[in-house]
Amino acid sequence: MYKVCMVSLGCPKNQVDAEMMLKLLSDGGLEITSAEADADAIIINTCGFIESAKAEAIENILEAAEYKKDGSCKALIVTGCLAERYKDDVTEEIPEVDVCVGIGSNSKIAEIVINAIKGKRENSYGDKADLNLNGERILGGYPFSTYLKVADGCDNCCTYCAIPKIRGRMRSRTIEECVNEAKALAEKGVRELIVVAQDTTAYGVDIYGESKLPELLTELCQIDGLHWIRTLYTYPDRIKDKLLDVIAKEEKLVKYLDIPIQHVNGEILKKMNRKGDKESLSALIDKIRAKIPEITLRTTLITGFPGETEEQFCEMAEFVREKRFDRLGCFPYSAEEGTLAAELDGQIDEQTKNDRMENIMEMQMTIAVEKNEEKADTVTEVIIEGWDDYIKCYFGRTAADAPEVDGKIFFMSTRPLKIGDFAKVRINDCIDYDLLGELEE
To answer: Are the C-beta atoms of 357 and 303 separated by less than 8 Å?
Structure first.
């Protein structure tokens, strides 16, 4: 039996693809191992969204290539967005790679890997639409918290984004397909389900003629075993009262919304092929907080978009100061080949883009610490993720924290706790984005 190791990079949606491929590999007679040194084949499931992600992917590919020299590895295979975006260029530019597999060929991954181990070097690129959105998975990470990918691809065509070229048009799964998978995951012990797509608020538009996210979330809340249901990647212009009412009503829906607004200046947003301006976004945020007072709001911003003036940047910075987002990520604009924004006049130098990004993040750090300090001496529900042997305490996340992107809570307990359970923790202090506390007995 051949052994295969997979390293998956990038977003949660890519992670779901990786988990489906792992099940196909296992069903195809391959043994899954986490040790690259023991693997007959290593798969790097890549992200290719922006320059930093591509650099990370290439670094991982080259590190894995060392096992062809020093380990048992006979084949290095690249899958995911980088493979789909650059196709044969990957094997031509990185000769250490034996086979490149586009997303439309994921269903053939076991056959491709076995052939590659035996010496057959043949890239494979199926139609993007052939990427199967339904199928069993071998869950990575925590077994009690995972993602439910409800659609793939995107129709928004933001001018800075290469995702539509990589992933194609949006394709939603049916409500029944999503609910059936969620039930199966709950039966396997999943307690926290995180709903994702490129634009989760557009879910269902392609097959039902309108967004069906509120209806899907309502159905998911009926599933026994699920305790928290979280939604990521909700676009501001599609957040309607119907969705907010469902989030406010359903107890299992954590009061958390991830809204990547990217900018607030109307002219910049128009250049991005996005809707809205400072006034409309401000009104939306005010409405959300009025309807769901306990809501945690997360957003994402881009600095240094082509043509962004100092005045336009300051407008965004002032918006961040005024609206005091609970969670915020900010990234310097990345000019991606094949996108409309990369061809725009007024490209901004890297130093200015990074300086503006750091300005926003410094401001957000102050806001985040102030908000965390306000939580002192309150009790919150926590999902227990593990034990930190160095500082001798448990750690986990509150409902206000999504995996990977938000903070954690570290807390003391006088009795043993079970990983994956929920517990009540009294918050005592904070360190930057993280909270400190103790178990509420």
So the answer is: yes
Q: How far apart are CA 7 and CA 64, in angstroms?
A: 9
Q: Is the dihedral of CA 75, 80, 84, 86 positive or negative?
A: negative
Distance between CA atoms of residues 429 and 437, nearest Å? 7
Question: How many CB atoms within 10 Å of residue 114?
Answer: 19
Q: How many C-alpha atoms does 107 have within 13 Å on its Cβ side?
A: 11
Condensed to tens digits (0 to 9), the pLDDT of residues 53-97 reads: 888 999 999 999 999 887 789 999 999 999 999 999 999 999 999
Sheet holding 296-303, edge to edge: 256-258, 296-303, 327-332
In angstroms, rounded to a whole number, what is the distance separating the alpha carbons of residues 103 and 128?
6
Mean pLDDT, the chain, integer:
95
What is the separation of C-alpha 69 from the centre of its chain, rounded to a whole number of angstroms?
33
Q: Sign (positive/negative) of CA torsion 377, 381, 385, 386?
A: positive
Q: Give the strands of the sheet with 99-100, arranged side by side.
A: 31-32, 3-8, 41-46, 75-80, 99-100
